[in-house]
Amino acid sequence: MTTVTGLAFPGESTVALREFDIPSPGPTEVRISVKASGICGSDLHSYIAPSGLRAPDGTTLIAGGHEPAGVVESVGSAVTGFAVGDRVLVHHILGCGTCDNCRRGYPVVCRSAARIAYGGGRNGGHAPLLLVEERSLILLPETLSFIDGAMIACGVSTAYSALLKTGVRAGDRLLVTGMGPVGLAVTLLAANMGVFVIGSDPNADRLAEATRHGLAHALSATDAAAELDALTGGFGVDAAIECSGAVPARLLCLEAAGTWGRVVYVGVGRQDLTFSPTDLVLKKLLTVRGSWVSSMAEMEEVTRLLARTGIHPDSLVSETYDLAAGEEAYRRFADGATGKLAFVYT
Ligand SMILES: [Zn+2]
Ligand SMILES: [Zn+2]
């Protein structure tokens, strides 16, 4: 057992540094010395929530953060795939490992009540030590930084999984709505594939940031439909990925897609959307899909792909903080800071 100082969310948009006991690894567990921990929109929900982020008992505060990367510090007696000193990133959803969805590599849709998230049920990466199951780990190649690893652990693999579902190829036109961290990651990956990426976001600063990561065209807010017509010769985009969860953006993706188009919804939003399936889906032979985080295999695949191609998602990070500045970091993020924020530990 080692006690460390980590960042907790007591509730009502507050953060607090707390002492956390991180046990030595059980037989199938690994303890990680965390080097980087991303801040994600999902963490913001915990930060804002009246009750903050607590263990399943509803009382105990836990360390937040679900995008960790670091170095294996100690391993349990039954761990065979990883050793002390290995550089790793963590898939933040821990499923039961045995249900049909876990067997498909999708712990995010695990059917068991045992499904839990690091930084969402048990301690996460906003602390310098993190205890995880071996099966949650992915090896981080030497050529990628720890911040690269933290980006892959949630946002980049989420973007990659959504991008795969669109089936876009070089030269295709892709609309991306919402230029938060996931939209930026989609833009970075797609632009590097040779895809013509068209972006939409009500925040001009976010569009400007996306342009730095390969966005080919930023839609103006005034007449997106006419602009899309002009850009696509009236054919519509080949595919669209909705990353904001906002109702107008969800509708825009359906409207912008041409015949045979593919639309992937990955941004979380709770408002209902009303549209005509006959005109927008049926008569356009559209494919509409949902996407949520990624499979273990996709996360591993995008890690290797980035290492091979030399694309560094740490370029998406606009600000880094140490845990002591956690309050400022979360305030900045909640206020709509552009790019991605992350904690780094020395
Ligand atoms: Zn996340
Ligand atoms: Zn499961």
Automatic annotation (TrEMBL):
Gene3D superfamilies for this protein: Medium-chain alcohol dehydrogenases, catalytic domain (3.90.180.10), NAD(P)-binding Rossmann-like Domain (3.40.50.720)
Cofactor dependency: Zn(2+)
Every Enoyl reductase (ER) domain range: 11-343
SMART domains associated with the record: PKS_ER
InterPro entries reported in the protein's UniProt record: ADH-like_C, ADH-like_N, ADH_Zn_CS, ER, GroES-like_sf, NAD(P)-bd_dom_sf, Zn_alcohol_dh
Keywords: Metal-binding, Oxidoreductase, Zinc
Keyword NAD appears in the UniProt entry: no
A Pfam family annotated for this UniProt entry: ADH_zinc_N
PROSITE patterns documented for this protein: ADH_ZINC
Family affiliation: Belongs to the zinc-containing alcohol dehydrogenase family.
Protein's recorded name: Zinc-binding dehydrogenase
